[in-house]
Every structure is written in C-alpha cells, then in structure tokens.
Amino acid sequence: MDVIRIEGGSFLQGRITAGGAKNSVLPIFAACLLTEDECVIRNVPDLSDVRYMGKILEHVGASVADEGDGVWRIRAAEVRPEAPYELVRKMRASICLLGALVGRLGEARVSMPGGCVIGPRPIDLHMKGLRKLSCQVEVEAGYLRVDGHSRRGGDVFLGGRYGSTVTGTANLVMAAVRTPGKTRIECAACEPEIVDLCTLLQEMGALIEGVGSPTLVIHGVDSLKGVDHSVIPDRIETGTYLIAGALAGSGLEVVGAPPSLLGAFTDKMEEVGVGLEFNQGVWTVHSAADRNPVDLITLPHPGFPTDLQAQMCTLLAITPGISVLTERVYPNRFMHVPELQRMGADLAIEGASCIVKGRKSLSGAPVMASDLRASAALVLAGLVATGETWIQRVYHLDRGYQCMDAKLRAVGARIERLPDSEMPKHLLGEDN
Ligand code: EPU
Q1: Less Cβ around it within 10 Å: N or C end of the chain?
Q2: 177: DSSP letter
C-alpha cells in the first residue's frame, strides 16, 4: 500500500487539468449494456473505480477494452443478469447495473450493496421506482431479484427524506428507456452526471424529455444503438483544485468543469472572498488576503455538492471566524473531522453540522484517509500545514482522483507517493 508525504508551504503555480467525471462514467458504462452494438466512451479518467466497473461489465458478459488516452470500447453482445456479492461489495456504485440489466434483459439479480463509511446508503427508492414500472422486486439471501418481464411505464415520485437520489434516478431511467409505454419520474436527480447519462441514452436512440429538470418523461423503445460519447469534466475534481488554488495558489489555473456545473460552489467561494475567473475554458483562482467565514448547506444539485464539503472544511479551517457546514445529503459525512483535528483544526460536530473556528494555520501530522473526499481534504490540508503530513490509506484517493499527487507536484507542491514501508515506523497508524 502507498502513503503520501507532503511538505507544506509551497506555492502552486501553473495549470492543472481535471479529467472526465467519475460519477458520470460509472452509470454510463452500465448503460452500454442496453445495446448489443459497440459503444465508444471518451474522456474516461484512469481511476480504480472505473477499472473495477470495467471488470464488472466483463463479468456480466460484455467485452471491454481500454484503448488508452481515456478511450474505452464496450460491446455487450450477450449479457447475464447476475452481479454477485464478491463484485458489488467492493464498489457501491455497481448497483447502477440494476437498471441496465432490467432494461436489457427484463430481469436482474444483483447483490444488495452494504453500508459505507459516509453513512447508511439504502436503496429503497431504487426498489420503489422499479415496482412502479410493474417489476416484481424481492430481497432474497442478500440479493435483489427483479422480475421485469411484464414491466410497463408508470408514474414514479423518487424523492426521499434527503431529496432525490442520483444512482436511483440513473437506474430508473436506464430501466425505463427500454420499458414499453410512458414513464414519468418526479423528483428526479438533476445532477450534471444524470444529464450526461440521459444525453448518452438519447444519442443511443432513447426518448427522454425534461433532461436536467426534476421531471423526466420517458417513452420506452424496443432497442438502442451504439454510441460514441465523451464524458463531461469532473466538477468535483475541478472544485477540489480550485480550493487548492485558494489555499496555496498564486494564480493557479484549472481546466475542468465550466461555471454552469459549479454555480453553488463558486458562489460560496466568492462569499469566502476567493477570486475566480473563467476564460475560454480555464479557471484562474486568486487566493484572498482576507477570507470570510460562511454558512454552507449541502443539498442535491443545484445546491452545494456534498462531494465538496470535506475539501471546503479544510479551506474554512484556516479562514478567520466561525463557519458552519451542514450536511443535508449524508448527515454523518464528517470522517475528515477527527483527522483534520489532528492537524490542529478547531472543529466540532453538532448533529449534522460541523462548526469550524478558523485558525491561523494547521500543522502537519500523520493522518488516515477514510473515504474518497475525506482523503482529498487531507491532501489540501497538507499543502498549507507547517511541516510534514503523512497520509495513509491513499487507495481511497485513487478511486476518484487520477494522479492527484503528480498533478499537484507539477504545479509546485512538495508531495510524493511512497510505499508504506518507507513511512517512519513511529508515524504508522493502526490499520484495523
Ligand atoms: N437515499 C435513500 N434511499 C435510496 C437512495 C438514497 O434514502 O434509495 C438517500 C441516501 O442515503 C442519501 C441521499 O438519499 O442520504 C442521496 O443519495 P444518492 O442516492 O443520491 O447517492 P448515490 O447515488 O448513492 C451519488 C454519488 C456520490 C454522491 C451522491 C450525492 C455516484 C457513484 N455516487 O451517490 O458520490 O455523494 O450521489 O451527490 O454517483 C463520491 O463521489 O465521493 C460520492 C460518494
């Protein structure tokens, strides 16, 4: 296993490019199962989650080729309806196979995903949606078994206690595009990654109205055709590097998601006092001399994304004054908090909120990554902390950030990836 070592205090200058959106690619790969034709997917980031999704597609019968340069070819001439526990348990997002298998074969047997460090992640809304399409859905020995041979369009309200569901919407749309009749989904997720999926499906011949809005109307078709599609840029990776620029940059440039995908985030950054400019596809971020504390609430899109909350916590931890971060998507998503506290951040969790008392500085420490976005928050903290930060369990980072250490090194960060055998023994944390 690798660790990351960062020596804080360097200035970031130059240009970083964000890759394709991980959370678009995963359902888009699944959607390739909806046709027998070949699909070419471009701008695919080289991430462990993406490679894993490729393996899952192979397991259900597709031929999958990574052609290099972010181009993947997927052909699902024949498909099996089963995704076993050994595969699904390692990546929760593999549940997005469900809708594609139902759409293609009229049946699916997919292992129920387990819990996750960011909190309970039920799939009741996915099940409710499929039932509204007249599918029979049962949980049996840890598996979700769907019989959709008599499926037909229906009206579905897909809102839950935390609002819409992203993967639930993806699943229902993928099932509905090849379900006879008209399906109407209310409270559909509006995330850009759902728009990207719907765009791909439309290019394949699906009939979907209202894309990007909370009401989707889908007219089922008998078959879909192959596609050549380029994935949208990753707005979360883009936002993470914009925060890096705000913390440690000196006119850092970031090529990635455009303002239309980042409205709530850039609005908050401006309130903090960070100067952002977007010109001809390139962001320039100016770190503010005087930053202001903010209240921030994560919400489904177009609200502030939960996937940028941990990174924002790092920025606010060294912004004078008291900020409040409230989670309305995953009320327990604060695993970064105890690790940032080890670096001197003054943070307190109150229910679904984190109260941040901004400090002048953070100090480097050995810390443990617990999930993808928490890892990114720790890397950002390491960039500005005094002294050395060692981050263990960086495989979490590799799930969603392609070569983050190399990208940051290229713009001046003193960051390196080492085998954990090179980490001083007295700094090693308990790996239990
Ligand atoms: N929920 C339910 N019932 C359901 C489904 C969801 O109550 O049937 C709840 C969840 O427990 C949560 C909320 O609804 O409180 C939102 O969950 P959602 O289903 O939208 O999340 P997801 O589809 O499982 C995707 C991303 C996450 C991102 C969330 C929210 C993928 C593969 N994952 O998860 O990404 O945080 O949407 O935007 O698209 C990440 O990239 O780090 C990540 C965790």
Answers
A1: C
A2: T
Counting Cα atoms < 13 Å in the Cβ hemisphere of 406 gives 6
**Could you tell me the CATH superfamily of domain 22-219?**
Enolpyruvate transferase domain (3.65.10.10)
Question: pLDDT at residue 289 above 80?
Answer: no
What pTM value is reported for the model? 0.97
Q: Which residues line ligand 1 (CB under 6 A)?
A: 23, 26, 93, 120-126, 160, 162, 165-168, 306-307, 329-330, 372-373, 400
If pLDDT is split at 50, 70 and 90, which confidence band does 432 have?
A: very low
The encoded tokens of residue 275 equal 């100067």
CATH of 2-19+233-428, one of 3.40.50.11030, 3.65.10.10, 1.20.120.140, 3.30.1490.480: 3.65.10.10
- From ligand 1's centre to the CA of 251, what distance in Å? 34
Q: Which residues contact 108 (CB under 8 A, 6 or more apart)?
A: 81, 82, 83, 97, 98, 101, 102, 144, 145, 146, 148
